[in-house]
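Re: that chain you flagged

S.,

Sorry for the slow reply, it's been a week of failed gels. I finally had a moment to sit down with the sequence you sent. For the record, here it is as I used it:
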Amino acid sequence: MNWIRVFLAALVFMGLTAHAVWADVVPGDVINSGNYQKIEGLVPDYVLDWVKKGDLTMKIGKLNVDPKEFWPQVVKDNWKSNIGKYKISDNHTIVDAATGKPARNIKGLPFPEPDPKDPKMPVMLMWNQKFLEYYVKGPTQYTLNWFSIGRRGLEKNFLLDSYMMQAEPDSEYDFLELSVFKSPMSVAGVGTLAFYCLDTTKEGLRFAYTPELRKIRRMAVRMAGSDTVMGFDSAPDDFWSGGERDAMNMSNYRFIEEKEALVPYVCADPEKLVRASNGALQGGYSVSGRKLTMGYEDKNWKGAPWHLTNIIWVKSRVYVIESKDKSPNYNYGTVQGWVEKGTFVPSYKRNTDVNGKYWKGNYYCGVPMQSTDGKFKIIYKFGNVMVDSRRDHGSAYCDIFREGGLCYFEYNSINKSLFTRAGFEKFAK
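Prediction finished late last night. Pasting the structure tokens below so you have them in one place:
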């Protein structure tokens, strides 16, 4: 009977070994409906389903940079000093750990090494994402491309300008944002101007302008971030991996796990940033000509027309978190986000409806970016795709990597009068 036990043990070992090899990938692999099992556990369930049914093909690659080195100098200079310097209050405000008072004029990332054992750790990840967006790149300008795509192909393409900057130290607000649509003509001039506070108990300001009214209207700053924008598939809160961006105190967060994952990247090598005549670091299509291609444009693509076909998927580690909003008017139920460890770039977002049924799935592309002199480095999020399972419809946000797309970092000569009511109205007109 010993030989039977040996034989059975060998079969078990072979099965375990075969599964371990099968559920893994290496650079150069192409994952499709024929070998989708290789990515089980490395991507969210909805991405696995896309690959399984043939909507998505994944090209496995690797980064040719060390993400730990790709931080702007302001982040590096304040990395050690910020560890343990700040905490999260019960209303999700950043507070000084020593005084317990709301923090202001923070330099670098507030939580460079968040501890997964801290129950507020998921909120720390969300604040790091906000600082990546508004602070560590200096004043910024983007010209962004949005595409709405059905099964039959492109339905509409919008171009918009977005400006962001940190408020002056003596201001009652902390960060400012202006966005205006440029095209098509039917929406050109529609825009918003918002003033936000780090203290979540304080209200900011938001103004909206439409060419039809020729007037500015004041609006609630804490608008429903789960309402879709201009008929696209994403809502404002879908441009990061958490719950409400403009009312962080309305979401409850939970840390699920840290795990190995495949995360999407636009490119393996750094995207070039050059010093423009306005003194800012300029990048995107206007500099490199890099273009994100969608399925409907690629004659060899057999998947869904909204997916990006020329990105790579890189093995990394992620934090998986959950958020649930407390507002009765919020359209989403439980939301699950995957955040890349070390870069804090969002990788995935899984949205359910209020009944807990899967509704939308998102993936975000990271991009390593570097100035030509090597002094400025960052990994940032440009390019993402949202798929609405109910509509069987997708939106591709190719951002700066299409015709007309660009970014300006360290835009210190930005026209600050834009961030006033009069300046906003003049700009929108």
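What I noticed first: Helices lie at 2-22, 45-52, 73-82, 121-134, 285-288, 421-428.

Talk soon,
D.
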